[in-house]
Amino acid sequence: MTQKNKILVVEDELGFAKMIKLRLDSVGYDVTIAGDAYTGTQEIIKHDYALIILDLMMPAGGGFSLLERIRKIPAKASIPVIVLTGKTIDDEIRSQAEVLEVAAIYTKPYESSEFVEQIKSIVPPETRD
What does the alpha-carbon distance between residue 68 and residue 26 come to, in Å, rounded to a whole number? Predict the structure, then answer.
């Protein structure tokens, strides 16, 4: 069963991944970091996530390759994915994102509050009493 607030960040820039984790932890998400596509794949197979935040350019396979694998696993295929990229978002990236049913694409650096609001619209955070 998917934890409704569990998010996986697959990002090879550890400092950047930690900033995302810190920001999302502070608003009620449970965030796990995977530093490359291979580790991300293992995390996705072993655990249930409500959302995946995925960098496109990483060691051990790119983000779209990982997303193609996710979409072929029936139990994981419908997990929403937000893509991060340091590249310019061109027609090729948009087209691939559309085919792979990406929820949103952000260019690094991104606007933090807009990014968090996008995540909240996909996966509401756990409320704290």
Answer: 31
